[in-house]
Amino acid sequence: MVILALWSFVSLRAPTSLAWSIRLGLVVLVAGLAIGGIILAEGQRQTDLGPPSSPVRFGEAGVMNVPHALAIHALQVLPVLGWILLFTRWDERGRLALVLAAAAGYATIIAAAIAAAIPSTAVTTTASAALSSWLGFVNC
Q1: Distances (CA, A) of 87 to 23, 108, 140
Q2: Domain coverage including residue 79
Q3: What total of structural domains would you count in the chain?
Q4: pLDDT tens, 38-80?
């Protein structure tokens, strides 16, 4: 998968917005595969040591499964977005801007899920705390 992601930066021939949506989807997919490797390695370590003691355990919040699943599905979400945008009346610059913004937002969601996994809290708890602090900042 890493080779395919690297190849997409060299030889992919497509409209710019679609090409970047595919490239970014592949990059996030590789990150998801790395998260999956961490889950497997930590699961093996925990099996050897006994009861779970780290943030990648499968606890009440699902822990690292959420960011792993989100990252794996980026390969579907981002290229489909890029493809759908080809049918709009937007110019290439606008489509590319939306693809880049969507990829940044998707990466932020994955980062929030990882941040929630570290202390073993639910993603919704972390997200609601972040949203309430942001709303408090906006109201000032």
Answers
A1: 20, 27, 41
A2: 2-139
A3: 1
A4: 888 777 777 777 766 555 555 554 577 788 889 999 999 999 9
